[in-house]
Amino acid sequence: MKIAIGSDHRGYELKEKIKKCFDNRKIEYQDFGAFSEEKTDYPIIVEKVASSIQERKCELGILICGTGFGMCITANKFKGIRATTCYNEETAKLSKLHNNANILTMGANYLDIDEAMKIIDAWLNTEFEGGRHKKRIEEIEEIENHNMK
After folding, report:
1. Selected catalytic residue, list 21, 58, 65, 86
2. Which residue, of 53, 82, 83, 133, is most buried by count of CB atoms within 10 Å of its CB?
3. Which residue has the higher pLDDT, 147 or 70?
4. Is domain 2-147 classified as CATH 3.90.190.20?
C-alpha cells in the first residue's frame, strides 16, 4: 500500500515526523509537499493528494494543516474522496469502519507525534465494515454522480 501525504506550512513539522515513523516502519508513501515551513496554500497540496488517489497511484492519503478542517473540506470536493478530520483513535476507527474514509486529515496545532501516530495506526488498521454502511457509501456516490459533473 502506498500512502499520499501532504501538508501546508502549519502541518509541515508534523508531516516530517510522520514520514520518519513511516520510514522506520517501511511504510511506502509519496510526499506531495509542503517542503518547508514557508507559507503554502493548502488547496494546492490537497489537489495533488486527492488526484493521486483518484488516479490510483496511491491507495490512501493523509493531509495535515493547522486544524485539519480546510484540507478536509477541500478534499471532499473531489469525486470519490471521503475525507475525515480525526483527533483521536476512536474517530479514526469509525471514519474507516463506517465511512470507508480514504483520506485522513489532522490538525497539527492540536496533536503531537505520538497522538498523530496512534490516530494513523487506528485508521490504517481498521477495515470498512460494509453492510448497512455500504448502502450509505453508494448513496454518497449517487449524490456525487449527480452533483459532480
Report:
1. 65
2. 83
3. 70
4. no
